[in-house]
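Lab notebook: predicted structure, single chain.

Context: the supervisor wants predicted structures on file for every construct in the current expression panel, including those that have not yet been purified. This is the next one on the list. No modifications to the sequence; it matches the entry in the shared construct table.
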Amino acid sequence: MGDVSDKVAYFQAITGLEDADLCTEILQAHGWDLELAISTFTGSNSPDEPPSASAAAAATTSSSAPADASSGSQQLAVEPPSTAGGRSLTWRLITLPVSVISGGLGLVSGAIGLGMWIAGGVLSYSLGMVGLGSGSGRSGGAASSRLVSVSAAAAEAMEFVASFEREYGTAALRPNFVSEGFMDALQRSRNAFKLLFVYLHSPDHPDTPLFCEQTLCSEALTAFVNENFVAWGGSIRASEGFKMSNSLKASRFPFCAVVMAATNQRIALLQQVEGPKSPEEMLMILQRVLEESGPVLISARLEAEERRTNMRLREEQDAAYREALEADQARERQRREEQERLEREAAEAERKRKEEEEARERAEREAAEKAAALAKLREEKSLSLGAEPEKGSNVTQVLVRFPTGERKERRFHSDATVQSLYDYVDSLGCLEMGNYTLISNFPRKSYGSDKFSSSLKEEGLYPQASLFVELNS
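Prediction complete. Output recorded below exactly as produced.
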């Protein structure tokens, strides 16, 4: 018996039917196959067919509830419309966590708190974007249908708006129903910090035309709804509108509701209005809901603004930190580059100093070597001259005048060569070797390298001679 009662309770939770006896009869008719009964029920309650006896029974049992508001919390699936007929058990299990919480503002605040408007990702849109397939578990296994995409839900919403416009007036004279699916409209209201006004349209209900013309399209109500709410409407003939009527337990039409997004993929039902109402009655109800919900919306808006301010402040602080860090890094990079430049310059200066020092040392060494070689050569030349001969018949007296005015005099054998005169001048160290020429004035005669092998006597430098040192240019 416990298994039977569990199946009945589960079937009620999935389908939204409140009549336990009717649920029992449906399960018995399907051999207590829970999944088959659910698939048959959801398939028969398609938007192209009117609700079956089960839906009618649900409406009958709900008609005893108050017309203006319902209380309590039910686990009701708020699912997007589906274009396929059959739906598997897996679909219902996924959409089951979406609940409608009805009641006053105190119950709503206690259930969901102020954080419900600022929690990111309140409603998941992934269910309308992807497909989910599962086997039925029966022999032959029928594939489950894909979930309806957002574009299909938006298409239904646009069709409703266009149909409502044709029937009851232009956009300026009606609530500004959004042309998107219910979940998108709910998200839009959350982002705008507004409540969502829901209108479920029953084209065949006798009260619908008058309610739409005189109440919904009244100037005062239209202006109030458009200013303070995000409005969404759907026809119960369409898939999403039909599913919303089941989820919101709509038992009488015309049907309006005010909902708001809550946490954990749930929606809070703040107010539902069933049956025809005058514009004044609707305005009073909506004003009361708005007044009761005002603190929640204001707090949510302030918290969101504070969060945005804090986020902007953090971004500014992060930007300032990054800028300061980049400046520090630039300064450090500049310092390193300057240090490297100074080190390079110091290394280059040291290299040049060493090169100059080495060049100076080399020049000094070469000069010393040259001086030593020159001194040795002078000594050799001095030695090659031999001792100065005494005066005699074969001796000539030679006087050499230097450019500085200095005079040097020496005796040479008359058969000595002109080269010996140059050796004598070189041995004195007064002039650079090879950079001068010995000449005589009267007559002027030059004794260059072509005369080196000639004797003094042959060149007329006997018995005495006076020579000048002429520097080569």
